[in-house]
Each structure stands twice: as C-alpha cells, then as structure tokens.
Write a structure and sequence with these properties.
A hairpin with a 2-residue loop joins strand 1 and strand 2. The chain is built from 17 helices and two strands. It has about 425 residues and is mainly α. The two termini are about 40 Å apart. It has a two-stranded antiparallel ribbon. Mean pLDDT is about 85; it is low at about 200-205 and about 420-429.
Length: about 425
C-alpha cells in the first residue's frame, strides 16, 4: 500500500512538473527578452509577435485539448508532447529566422496546449477520488511552481557563467530546457497511466463521442467552474502589474520591485498551491469550492483596502503587505479551482472536455486584461489607472463569490444522502 501511494505521488510530481516547465521555452521572453533580441536578432516588436502567436493559438486549442484528454492515452500524449517540445527546442537553439520561430510557437501551442494541458489536469485528477481533488490539485499547482522555479534558477546560473556577449549563453539555456523536456517525456511513458474512462449506464458502457461536447455545455457546473476560474485568473493577470504599482505609487526602486515580482510569481506559486490543498485535506474545511469562496472574501477585503490607500499611498510596507495578501489568496485559489470540477462529480469520461471548455472561458482575461490595463496606464494618471485596475479586480472577485455560492448549492443538492447507494455517474443540469 505504501509503495502504491508513493508511486501515486511520484506520478503526480512528474505530471505536475512536466505541465509546468513545458511552457518555459514558449515564454522565454519573460526572463530572456534582451538576450533574445541581442543573440537571435529579433526586434522587440518581433518578440511580441512571437508571443502573441502562441497566445492566440493556445486560446483556439484549449477546447480541443479536452477532447484529446477524453479520447486518447494520457501516457502517449504526455510523452510525445514533452519529447516533441524538446526536439522543437533543439531547432530553436540554432537561432532560426523569424518565420521559423513563428512556426515553432504554433508547434509549441500544439504540444503544450492541445496535447498536454487538459491531459495533465485530467491525469492528475484521476489519481484520487472527488474528496481528494483539493489536495491533488493544490499539490499539482505547487509542484508546477517548484519545477518552474528550480529550472529557472538553474538555467539562470548557467547563463551567468558565460561572458555577457557570448551568444552561447542563451543557446545553453535552451538546450537545458530541451534535455529536461525529453527526460520528462521518457518518465511520463513509464509512470503515467493511459487514463481511459468510459460512460457507464444500465445498458453497459459507451465510449466518449463528440455529442458529449454539447452535454458538457448543458451542465450548469461547467459554467460555474468556468466563471470561477475567469474571476481568479483576472486577479492573476492584475498581479503581473504589482511591480509597476509599487514603483509608480510607492516609489520603490526597480530592483526591489523586481525581487517582489520573483517572490510573487515564483515563490508564492510554489507555496500557496499546496497550502490550499492542505487546508482542504487536514482541516474541517473539506470543500475546495468553499475554500476558494473564503479566499475570495480575503481578496475583496484586500482590494477594498488597496482602493482606499490608492489615492494617498503612505507606507511602502503596507503596499507590499496588501500585494502579498492578494497574491496568497490568488495562488491558493489557482491551486484549487480545477478541483471544483472534480468536487462537482463531473463524469470522468467527459472530465477532459470539461477542463478544456473551462480553460477557454476561464483564461479569457489573457485576451483583454493586458491591453485594457496598458491603455489605462498610457492615457490616465497613475492614481486613476490603478484605481480602475483594483475596481476590475473587485468585479472579478465578486463574480467568484457568486459562482462559488451557486456551485456549492448545486453540489449540496446532488449530494448522496448517508445510507443511500451511490450512482455510477451523475450530471448536473
């Protein structure tokens, strides 16, 4: 039993780290924009176009990725996705021309989104029952963060070993990522299960069909979970402006604010996801949805204080404390929001499709938050721009409160009474 449990958690670690680091080459600009411009010969506009190519393709592929998760072997999809991503990295390491980089970004979206995204979430979800979803998804988010942080620190160290003008520095970083991807692909082959699930009913079994897409869209909990993710992800997008906020409103130095960015984006991601899972596992608060609801209350209070202090910022320590509190609530919620899908007892044979559809709707803030906040920053005084940003956050968090309440009511209304035989599957219409 202990050996089986150890293998389960090792499998979760492999799935989580693979799903986390797989995006690092596609998002190489986040850390290495200047070296990309210098050594690969791209202008900042071209780098922006490379990034937007991945983003646009990803939005298109989230929903089909769910169908992939329900129809194909998780082991094969994850293994091939990681190995192909690693091979694409080898091409990227020769510093190809712009048009080739565009093609590589489209290919990255196919491997990391279409083949890997929903598959990794469903594969992790199947490692436990609906009561364990908070723990599993919380640790999944945390292990993703640990993997991303560890690999980022290691590659930055390798990068620093080269002379500043040595073009081999960035090439070494890309090759390390490629090698890690291929290694993780091999590990996925040996540890990840196929994950095939079928629909059970009184007449026997029925494999997944495309008609189930319509079924997923008719299930009310699909929309509740999608809009919960939408609200939390809006806060996540807003937090990317915390460095600008602390610099412009509190006069924090750019170096200090950058360190704050590392704390929020790397360390908090690694710590807060598992913390959400621990809360739902070892306290009386067993429901991931209820935990997200309580965390949204923390966010609303924090955003309210940020609005109050926005017009007259005084102590930078207050600003830092409020940003960190908001980041804690956001990252703990991110570790739990996909667990809401499992807690709602979504049938396993359409779990992947549900994850894909929820991802399309939930991650839409990627499309509008950045240009909207950027427009406010360009056209409005800083005080007004950030006031509008916090108001947007309040509206998004209010959405989370509303739809967590609806989801909790739905879950309770379909709970199996004590002493009643459980049904094989149930759909919430």
């Amino acid at each position: 039993m202990e050996s089986s449990n150890f293998r389960r958690w090792l499998t979760l670690a492999i799935i989580s780290i693979s799903g986390g680091v797989s995006f690092d080459l596609a998002y190489l600009r986040y850390i290495y924009q200047i070296p990309m411009a210098k050594f690969m010969g791209f202008s900042n506009t071209e780098i922006g176009l490379i990034m937007s190519t991945f983003g646009i393709t990803a939005i298109i592929l989230y929903a089909p990725s769910g169908i992939i998760a329900d129809k194909f072997s998780h082991k094969k999809m994850m293994s091939f996705a990681m190995i192909i991503t690693g091979l694409l990295g080898l091409i990227m390491a020769v510093y190809p021309p712009f048009w080739v980089m565009i093609v590589i970004q489209v290919a990255f979206a196919i491997t990391t989104i279409l083949m890997l995204w929903s598959v990794s979430i469903k594969a992790a979800s199947l490692l436990g029952n609906h009561e364990e979803q908070g723990k599993i998804m919380g640790w999944m988010e945390g292990l993703r963060g640990v993997g991303v942080m560890a690999l980022a620190v290691f590659t930055m160290w390798v990068f620093s070993l080269f002379a500043p003008e040595n073009p081999a520095s960035l090439k070494a970083v890309i090759l390390i990522y490629s090698g890690v991807y291929i290694l993780l692909g091999v590990l996925c082959w040996f540890f990840v299960q196929d994950g095939f699930t079928v629909r059970s009913d009184e007449s026997g079994t029925q494999k997944f069909s495309l008609k189930d897409i319509t079924s997923v869209l008719k299930i009310s909990t699909t929309w509740y979970c999608s809009l919960i993710i939408f609200g939390v992800y809006t806060i996540y997008a807003i937090l990317s402006y915390s460095t600008n906020y602390l610099t412009e409103m509190y006069g924090m130095t750019l170096v200090a604010a950058s360190y704050m960015g590392i704390v929020i984006n790397k360390i908090f991601r690694a710590l807060c996801g598992p913390l959400g899972g621990i809360i739902t596992t070892y306290t009386r608060l067993k429901s991931p949805t209820r935990a997200v609801q309580l965390l949204s209350l923390v966010s609303i209070i924090t955003l309210g204080v940020l609005l109050i202090t926005n017009a007259h910022p005084s102590s930078v320590f207050i600003g830092i404390g409020l940003i960190l509190l908001l980041a804690f609530a956001c990252y703990a919620s991110r570790g739990l929001y996909f667990a809401c899908i499992g807690e709602a007892r979504t049938p396993k044979y359409i779990m992947g499709t549900t994850v894909g559809i929820c991802s399309v709707i939930g991650f839409l803030p990627d499309v509008f938050v950045y240009p909207l906040v950027g427009h406010w920053q360009d056209t409005l005084p800083a005080t007004v721009a950030y006031r509008n940003m916090w108001l947007l956050g309040l509206a998004a968090t209010a959405m989370v409160l509303i739809f967590t309440a609806l989801l909790i009511r739905n879950i309770r209304s379909h709970a199996v009474p004590a002493g009643t035989a459980k049904q094989p599957t149930q759909e919430f219409i």
